[in-house]
């Protein structure tokens, strides 16, 4: 998901997507620990998506704070 697509989402949708990705990362880590993870690249992409969403959430919070 691109940053522009994430910015177009509402705050609720961003948080929901973040929660889904964090659950997915937990599952990837569990699979990795059990030796069942097929591709570690999926875990890397998942971490990037989480970081991207957290960054955009932080941007919106800072913008909101500046307006006040």
How do you describe this structure in short?
85% of the residues lie in helices and 0% in strands.
Query: How many individual domains?
Result: 1
- Poorly predicted regions are none
CATH level-1 class: Mainly Alpha
Rg is 14 Å
Q: Tally of extended strands?
A: 0
Mean pLDDT: 93
Biggest sheet details: none
Q: Please identify the structural class as seen in this structure.
A: mainly alpha
Examine the coordinates and then state which fold CATH places here, giving the name of the CATH topology.
Helix Hairpins
First and last CA, distance: 30 Å
Hey, roughly how much beta strand do the residues contain?
Answer: under 5%
Helix content: over 70%
Q: Do you know the CATH architecture?
A: Orthogonal Bundle
Tally of contiguous helical segments: 3
Helix-strand pattern: HHH
Principal-axes geometry comes out as elongated
Model description:
There is one protein chain. It is elongated and about 50 Å long. It has one domain (3-67): Helix Hairpins, CATH 1.10.287. The protein is an all-alpha fold and 68 residues long. The protein is built from 3 helices and no strands.
Question: Characteristics of this structure?
Answer:
Helix Hairpins; 68 residues; mainly alpha
List the helices and strands and how they pair.
Layout: H1 3-8, H2 11-34, H3 40-67
